[in-house]
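not sure who needs this but someone in the group chat was asking about ABC transporter substrate-binding protein from Kitasatospora herbaricolor so here u go. i didnt clean anything up, its just raw.
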Amino acid sequence: MISRKTLRAAAAVLAVGTLTLTACSSGGGGGSKSSDAKGGKLSDQAQVSVGTAADSQGPAKAVEGAKAGGTVKDIERDDFEHLDPAQVYTNTGSNFSQLITRGLTGYKQEGSKVTLVGDLATDAGKPSDGGKTWTFTLKDGVKWENGEAITSADVKHSIERTFAPFITQGASYVQQWLTNQDYRKAYEGPYGGKHLDNVIAQDPKTIVFKFDKPHADFNYAMAMTTYAVVSEKGDTKEEYDKKPLSSGPYKIVDRVTDKTLTLERNTNWDAKTDPIRNAYPDKWNFEFGFQAIPATDKLIAADKGEDQTTMSFYASTAGDRLQKVLGDASLKDRLVKGNSPYADYYWINNKRITNQKVREALVQAWPLQQIRQTEGGPDTGDYSRSLLNPTVAGFQETDVWGKIAKPEGDPDKAKALLKEAGAENQKIVYAYNNTPKQQQISVVIESALKKAGFDVVIKPIDTKTWYDEISKVDKEIDVFWGGWGADWPTGATVLPVLFDGRTIADGSQNYSNFNDPEINAEIDRIMALSDSAEQNKAWGALDKKILEKAPAIPGITNKFYILHGSKIGGAEYDPLGQIISPNKVFLKP
C-alpha cells in the first residue's frame, strides 16, 4: 500500500471541528504554487471537517455541465488485488470500491474542501459516554443490487466478518478497539454462530458500537473500505472476493482477472441517498497491464478516437515524460495535479545500526537532491520537512538535520560523525526495489555514501516481495525505501504505526525496528488526550523528537500528475488518496 486520532469526544465539537491540512508545494528548490486543481494546477490546501446531517443528505451536488450516459474506459497497471471490502487496504482498491461499495460514513469532496459525512448513515455518527459509544441510523431507501434493503444486521455482520481467518488483509483498528487484545485470538468471526456483544443491531435501521475506551475518531475509521457493508444473506465468504454484491451505483457484470473488468449501473442504487457519488457514466470498462510509459503515451494521445473517453485512477505521468507533458500547452486542460498525502522515507534498520552517530552520518550523507533529479527534477516533488506528510493534522515544518538547506548531502559532516562514533568505513547494505528507475537511484546513493566514508553493498529485491522483505524483523539490510499514508488525516495513524517499538514483529510497519521507551511512553500519553487541538499539536512535537533520534531519513513528498482523455469531465484529484476520484466523472459531448 502506498498505504489515515483523536478528536474531542463531545458531539458538538465533532460536528463543527475542522482539520486544516496544508499541502506544501514549495521548498528545496522547486515547485510552483497555485490553488486551482483544474487545468493542471496544484491544490495547496485541503480541509477535512466532520459534516452535519444536512451535509449527509443526497443527491450529490451536480457538476456543472455534466450529463449522464456513456462508457468510460479506465487503464491501470494492475488489477485490483481484492474486491471484498474487508480485504481492501490500498488507495487503488478503495477508489474502485467507491463505485460498488458503501459504508456508514465517507468523504464528500468539493474542490479543496473534504467533509466526513454519513454515506449509508443519516449523519457521521453520534458519540456518547465520552466517545465510548457510537450510534448510527441507516437512511431510508438504501438497497443491495438485488433490491433487498441494507439493514443494521448487515452492518453488524460486516464488522464481525473482518475477524474471520480468511480475511488476511485490510485495516484492523476497529477489531482491536472492540476486543482490546489480539483480535485474532479473541474472536473468529460470525460463521460458527458466535457474535460480538458490543456491536448491537438495535433495530433494522440502528447500529450501536460500544467500546471500553473512548474512540472519538471512530467515524473516521468507518469511512475506510475495510468496514464497508457486506450483505449477511449474500456473503459467500472466500468467494465474495471474486464478485461482491453491490451497494453502490454500479455492479460487476464481467471480469477476466488481470485483464478486464466491466461495471454497469446498479438500478437499485438511489441517488437521493448518496451525498458522495454522482455516478454519471452508464458503464465503466477497466483494462489492466499498462506500464507507466505506455500509459502516459496513450493518455498524451487521448484527444482523438476512443481514447478521448479514456482515463486512469493512478497512472501518474512517467518521470521520463513529465517535462514533455508540463511543457505542452495543449495538454493543460487534460492534466490534473495534486500533492501526495503519502510520505516517503529511507528507513535505517535500528536493530543493525545501533549507534545514533552512524545513523546521523547516513542522514547527513543522503543525496536527496540527486535522487530527486534522477526521478525527474523539482517538478516531481519537494524535500520532506518532517515524518508527517503536510496533509496530516499536527504537521509542523522542521529541518532537524539541515537537509532542506543542503539537500545534496554533506559528506564531510558525515565523515566527522563516523569518526566520532569510531565507525569509519562502516559497512552499509542498501536495498532497493528492483525497477529500472530504482536501479538508477541506487547508483546515486552508492556514490554519495562512498564519498561520505561508508563501505556500501547494493542489494536488489524483487518488486513482488518488496514489502514482505522490508517488514521482516531479521532482515540483512541497513537502509531501504518505504512509503506510508495516514489511514485518516491525523498523526495517530502515522507515528504510532511506524515508530512504536512495541509493534515490532514480522509484517508490522515499524520497518526501522525503532524502539525507544521515551517515545513509546509519549505515544501512550498523546493517545489518551481527548482534545483534538492538543493532540494534534502533540503529534507534531513528537515528530520532531523522533527525528532527533535519526531512525529514518525523510525522503521526497511527491507531486501527482495525471492526464485524461479530452472527453473526460469531472476528473478530480482526491487529496487523501493520491488518486483520481471516479465520483464526479462524466463524458463531454
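also The longest strand covers residues 556-563. if thats useful
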